[in-house]
Design brief:
heterodimer, A: 207 residues, 7 helices, 82% helix, elongated, B: 3-stranded antiparallel β-sheet, 56% helix
Chain lengths: 207, 102
């Protein structure tokens, strides 16, 4: 075998191993942590606005509204940061670069839909119409997770579809229950997803 | 100075491109379904079937057929023999690259 062929083979092996590793690096623990944080945020939201409708936040004082926005921003930033850090750590432990091409693909798939959700949030805040904020975030996030899941196993795609379906139901039928929808989707669904991922990986390591 | 690598040292089962891809993927994932492997490696059903059979006959992978609900589920995993052969193959590749041995 010639050196060029050997190098090409080695590159091919590395590319496949990177891609496959990222298939198996589903964020189980970060999903559970993110879910618990989202649940806590929903409980705190309910305590603040005394309602299951995010629209009622507009009845709060300006300072309370700012506090509400800061709380959810902190939850979002911490949840995403811990997910990135823990997944990157898992990648390093598995011996692959956390910035490998499939990871970038996944990040790029998720970011446009999150950007859309942020723009819509700004529009909703500007117009004083917060009814649809939870279902819109659920559908945008679900779309992003589904797209990112195209580079992974089937499980994240199912999570994305579940978010989209729940968001659609929420948007059409239950927009006044935004806090509950967020608790069930961003909270419970993430926790269930994380537990399933952890159970599967434990099962694999036991074999 | 160590000996040059003889061509007959290269494992012809793993050396084939598609089979190397299958083994590389299974070296990382503990177990993959037929469809997951097909999607990861962009292979056709026939191609993956034929090459996975060759790997199974060589004792490099284990193929398990079961049902998930009513749907048939085929999963594959690397055997210790397959993992050893893969490591050996990578070692040979590295030696060729490092020393430019033909």
């Amino acid at each position: 075998m010639e050196r060029d062929v050997a190098q090409a083979r080695m590159r091919e092996v590395q590319r496949i191993m990177e891609r496959t590793t990222l298939y198996t690096l589903l964020p189980g623990t970060p999903a559970v942590i993110g879910g618990v944080m989202a649940l806590a945020g929903c409980v705190a939201s309910y305590a603040m606005i005394k309602s299951l409708d995010f629209a009622d936040v507009l009845a709060l004082s300006f300072e309370a509204q700012i506090g509400f926005c800061i709380m959810w921003t902190v939850i979002g930033v911490v949840a995403v940061t811990q997910e990135i850090l823990l997944t990157a750590r898992a990648a390093r432990l598995a011996g692959v670069s956390p910035t490998a091409r499939p990871a970038r693909f996944a990040a790029f798939s998720l970011s446009p839909s999150v950007a859309v959700a942020m723009i819509l949030t700004a529009v909703f805040l500007h117009d004083g119409n917060m009814h649809y904020i939870a279902p819109v975030w659920m559908m945008c996030y679900g779309t992003g997770v589904y797209a990112a899941g195209l580079f992974s196993l089937r499980l994240p795609r199912l999570l994305g579809l579940a978010f989209i379906a729940m968001g659609a139901v929420g948007l059409l039928l239950l927009p006044q229950y935004g806090v509950l929808l967020a608790a069930v989707s961003f909270g419970l669904l993430h926790i269930v997803f994380g537990v399933v991922v952890l159970a599967r990986s434990r099962q694999s390591s036991l074999i | 100075m160590s000996k040059p690598i003889r061509p007959d040292k290269i494992d012809s089962v793993i050396h084939e491109r598609v089979r190397l891809a299958i083994v590389s993927a299974l070296a990382v994932a503990p177990e993959m379904s037929f469809n997951e492997l097909k999607a990861t490696l962009s292979l056709t059903d026939g191609n993956l079937s034929a090459h996975s059979r060759t790997l199974e006959e060589a004792g490099y992978i284990r193929i398990n057929k079961s049902f998930e609900g009513r749907r048939p589920l085929t999963t594959m995993r690397l055997t210790p023999k397959g993992r050893h052969a893969f490591r050996l193959y990578l070692t040979i590749l590295r030696r060729i690259i490092e020393r430019n041995v033909q």
